[in-house]
């Protein structure tokens, strides 16, 4: 059974991860169509979450789908994250292949959590 399907049910439309990974050599029409359907329903592996490092002025985020010219968008998930963004001290300072860096205020808060999307 294909391990990408929950409970081993090949007819199940939901994956354990956000979207299926396709090999360039994939030949199964079912797998390819299902991946396209997942993308049409808004699922992709371009999203994630991060928590800003306390006691540091930058946080490096590993994001395999990022490339040097990608655009990263942050969405606060906690009150402290929203305050950090509103203060203007939190921004994406660098985007590279496989990662991006968020510059932020250096403080002891441990709950500055954001969702992100990395596109491009």
Largest sheet: 3 strands, antiparallel
Number of strands: 6
User: In angstroms, what separates the terminal alpha carbons?
Assistant: 33 Å
How would you spell out the order of helices and strands?
HEEEHEEE
Number of helices: 2
- Mean pLDDT reading: 84
Uncertain regions: pLDDT < 50 for 5+ in a row?
Answer: 1-17
How many separate domains?
2
* Helix content range: 10-25%
- Cα-atom radius of gyration: 17 Å
Strand content: 25-35%
Strand order of the largest sheet: 1-6-3
| Shape field | elongated
Structural class: alpha+beta
Q: Could you explain the architecture of this structure?
A:
By secondary structure, this protein is an alpha+beta fold. It folds into 2 domains: 6-40, no CATH class; 47-119. It is 17% helix and 28% strand. The protein has a 3-stranded antiparallel β-sheet with strand order 1-6-3. A 3-stranded antiparallel β-sheet has the order 2-5-4, with no helix packed on it. A hairpin with a 2-residue loop joins strand 4 and strand 5 (99-103). The longest helix is centred in the first third of the chain and has 12 residues, at 29-40. It starts with 28 loop residues before the first helix and ends with a strand. The model is unreliable at 1-17 (pLDDT under 50).
Main attributes of the structure:
three-stranded antiparallel β-sheet, single chain, 6 strands, 2 domains, 120 residues, alpha+beta
Topology:
Elements: H1 29-40, E1 47-51, E2 58-62, E3 71-76, H2 79-86, E4 91-96, E5 99-103, E6 113-119
Short précis:
The protein has two helices and six strands. By secondary structure, it is α+β, with helices and mostly antiparallel strands.
């Amino acid at each position: 059974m294909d391990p990408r399907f929950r409970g081993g049910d090949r007819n199940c439309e939901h994956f354990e991860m956000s979207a299926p990974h396709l090999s360039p050599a994939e030949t199964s029409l079912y797998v390819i169509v299902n991946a396209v359907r997942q993308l049409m329903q808004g699922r992709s592996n371009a999203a994630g979450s991060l928590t800003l490092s306390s006691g540091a002025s930058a946080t490096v985020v590993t994001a395999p789908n990022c490339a040097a010219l990608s655009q990263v968008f942050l969405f606060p998930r906690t009150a402290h994250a929203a305050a950090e963004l509103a203060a203007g001290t939190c921004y994406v300072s660098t985007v590279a292949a496989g990662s991006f860096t968020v510059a932020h205020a250096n403080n002891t808060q441990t709950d500055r959590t954001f969702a992100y999307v990395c596109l491009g």
